[in-house]
Write a structure and sequence with these properties.
alpha+beta, Dihydrolipoamide Transferase, 431 residues, OB fold (Dihydrolipoamide Acetyltransferase, E2P), 4-stranded antiparallel β-sheet, globular, 3 domains
């Protein structure tokens, strides 16, 4: 019998609402087929059947909320029903024997006064260490997971696994470690409590699941990443002119050509020159993880909050294809039609302050990425060229880096490369 728990599907999703069950109780289910659709603040997640069997019980009905780690479904594997019948038969036999024995003891006690025997023998008890060892042996987890739990100071026996048959996964251990950090012992860290606020003139509002995931992501980023931001301003007058000349062609191809596709293309070419910006840092093994794929995350503002889907294999796409993908992801984000694949495995992110008329900002890196680019609004400004004041289109840019992996010199060189590409937009098409 499998008690399948609502899994940690990533991206900071803690809970969801059951949108649709694709099977009724008693139906045969096949491994890998979609069993239930759970609506979250970010995506409508299709949860697959973990193993072949029969759906015996639903952990939540349509419209009900379910949190990560709670039982979503109970699935009977082949042979489970026979075992249940055998157990029921054995239980009935045991009950009959117990009743017979009890009757005999009652008859005996009615005629004979029994005596209580005492003993000076001290029974050996298991030491705490032995009990802990046995508890760990009963816990379903791989040696690698046990080592990770030990390294992070997490009690593996106290964790409820989200894997098959309750197996503890690495994600469960990381979640337990994060929870431990979020609620530290008062003796270890002096966290000031919320000061008293008068009720009059205030109101309280529970934050959404999406906002909870944002809070967790920001906490993780600020706790782990020593970040610094480099800022510059590019003269993109040539890019502005180039975009205007290409807009009629884009319209013929049904492409909405903003500045963002050009920026994405420039970032892709810069990442090829400086692959460390497309990497991650594994602080547990103290290794830099270089990635051969380029998935560019695009921050999208939605009514529920910020979502960052990514353009898969963006380095293989043309400027027009990038523009179409940006449009698709933005629309799906606002309509809550993103898939988990759209959100996972981002390698480098871009957030566009300019879309709201802002000039500059200091973007926060989304762990486990090591850099993020913030772009402001392009404005015409008076600048000095060859001793003369001229009007040019200026583009403010900010780059936040993980200083564990990237130094200031690397950040400066990356920005210079971006500037060169955006000031000469033809290079975006020729390279």
């Amino acid at each position: 019998m499998i008690k399948f728990k609502f899994p940690d599907i990533g991206e900071g999703i803690h809970e969801g609402k059951v949108l649709k069950w694709l099977y009724d109780v008693g139906a045969k289910v096949e491994e890998g087929e979609t069993m239930v659709i759970v609506e979250t603040d970010k995506v409508n997640a299709e949860i697959p059947v973990p193993e072949d069997g029969t759906l015996k019980e639903k952990g939540a009905d349509v419209g009900e909320m379910i949190e990560v780690g709670e039982i979503l479904a109970v699935i009977a594997e082949e042979g489970d029903e026979d075992e249940e019948e055998e157990k029921e038969t054995e239980t009935e036999k045991d009950e009959e024997e117990s009743e017979t024995k009890a009757d005999a003891e009652q008859e005996e006690s009615a005629s004979v006064v029994g005596s209580v025997e005492t003993s000076d023998e001290v029974l050996e008890t298991e030491s705490e260490e032995e009990e802990e060892e046995k508890a760990e042996e009963r816990t379903l987890a791989t040696p690698a997971a046990r080592k990770l739990a030990k390294d992070l100071g997490v009690d593996i026996a106290a964790i409820e696994g989200s894997g098959e048959k309750g197996r503890i996964m690495k994600a469960d251990i990381h979640a337990a470690a994060d929870k431990k950090k979020e609620k530290p012992d008062a003796r270890q860290e002096d966290i000031p409590s919320m000061p008293s606020i008068p009720k009059e003139g205030t109101r309280r509002e529970k934050i959404s699941s999406l906002r909870k995931s944002v809070v967790k992501a920001m906490d993780t980023s600020n706790r782990l990443i020593p970040a610094t931001t480099v800022m510059d301003e590019f003269d993109v007058t040539e890019l502005v002119t180039f975009r205007k000349t290409q807009k009629p062609l884009a319209e013929e191809e049904n492409v909405k050509l903003t500045y963002l596709p050009f920026i994405v293309r420039a970032v892709i070419l810069a990442l090829k020159e400086y692959p460390r910006f497309n990497a991650s840092y594994d602080h547990e093994t103290e290794e830099i993880v270089y990635k051969d794929y380029v998935n560019i995350g695009i921050a999208v503002d939605t009514p529920e909050g910020l979502v960052v889907p990514n353009i898969k294999d963006a380095d293989k796409l043309s400027v027009f294809a990038i523009a179409n993908e940006i449009g698709r992801l933005a629309e799906n984000a606002r309509e809550k039609k993103l898939t988990l694949d759209d959100l996972q495995n981002t390698t480098f992110s871009i957030t566009n302050y300019g879309a709201f008329g802002s000039k500059l900002g200091t973007p926060v890196i989304k762990h486990p990425e090591v850099a993020i680019l913030g772009t402001g609004a392009i404005e015409e400004k008076p600048v000095v060229e060859d001793g003369e004041v001229v009007v040019r289109s200026m583009f403010p840019v900010s780059l936040t880096i993980d200083h564990r992996v990237i130094d200031g010199g690397d950040a400066g060189r990356f920005m210079v490369q971006l500037k060169r590409l955006l000031q000469n937009p033809v290079l975006l098409l020729l390279r």
